[in-house]
Amino acid sequence: MSDRARFTAAILLAMAGLLGACASRPTGDAGGGGPLIRRASVDPARLELAPLDYTRFCMSHRTECELGVPDAVIGMTPEVEAEIHRVNRDVNQRIRPVKQTFDWRIDPESGNCNDYVVSKRHALMASGLPASALLIAVVTTPAGEGHLVLIARTDRGDLVLDNLTPEIRRRGETAYLWIKRQSPSHAVLWERM
Questions:
Q1: Count of CB atoms within 10 A of residue 25's CB?
Q2: Sign of torsion, CA 65 66 69 70?
Q3: What angle do CA 170, 50, 128 make, to 5 degrees?
Q4: Which of the 8 DSSP states describes residue 121?
Q5: Which CATH number belongs to the domain containing residue 124 in this structure?
Q6: What is the pLDDT of residues 171-193, one digit of tens each?
Q7: Number of domains in the chain
Q8: Distance in angstroms (rounded) separating the CA atoms of residues 176 and 142
Q9: Which residues constitute the domain of residue 66?
Q10: Longest Cα–Cα distance in the chain
Q11: Direct distance between the N- and C-terminal alpha carbons of the chain, in angstroms, rounded to an integer
Q12: What pLDDT score does 126 carry?
């Protein structure tokens, strides 16, 4: 597919998404210790299209980019917390870091932050956590480099899964400058932070 065709497809996806953004969203408790659902309030001026490389990834991995129930928050239990830590540790150990890759890949032998992020998100979704509570975020490191991390939105606050550290930290405990993240209520839109 040509770059022009990809660009056109991305624009059409975004337009279709904007039309669907007006639909009503369910709220309430999912029950059974599952994710809590809440209605999000987002300033439309903060919304923008997803990064092009993410859009390309979604075109070939459609199910990875579907949100399912919008605006979910993970109900933390000891089992869920252990699973989040296990996935973060296993993916960080399994993928050999390399500086630059352009394709976003799930579970490659080597990769950069985008590969770590989609691999962690894939594994956590496979374990039953809601996609709309697992958000990819663009940050700038203290050294001024662009970087991607995974945010797990929990009832105890946002947790950051990062390939640069084995620790899972709360968002406010990182030294990153937060640029934007996936919208928890719409698959093709991202929010400036």
A1: 14
A2: positive
A3: 55
A4: H
A5: 3.10.620
A6: 999 999 999 999 998 878 999 99
A7: 1
A8: 6
A9: 3-192
A10: 48
A11: 32
A12: 98
| pTM of the predicted protein model | 0.79
Q: Which residue in the block uniquely carries the two structure tokens 């890949």?
A: 105
Contact 36, 155 (CB under 8 A): yes
Q: For residue 76, what are the contacts with CB-CB under 8 A and spacing of at least 6?
A: 154, 155, 156
Token pair recorded at residue 83:
């699973």
Residues present in the chain in total: 193
Q: Which residue type does 93 have? A: Q
Token look-up 């374990």 returns: 127
Q: Which two tokens stand for residue 9?
A: 């497809």
Of all helices (H) and strands (E), which one includes residue 173?
none
Long-range contacts, stretch 20-28, CB < 8 angstroms, 24+ apart: 20/186, 21/185, 21/186, 21/189, 25/70, 25/71, 25/185, 26/69, 26/70, 27/71
Query: What span, in angstroms and rounded, lies between the C-alpha atoms of 131 and 133?
Result: 5
182 vs 44, higher pLDDT:
182
Q: Compute the Cα dihedral for 155, 153, 173, 107 and give only its sign.
A: positive
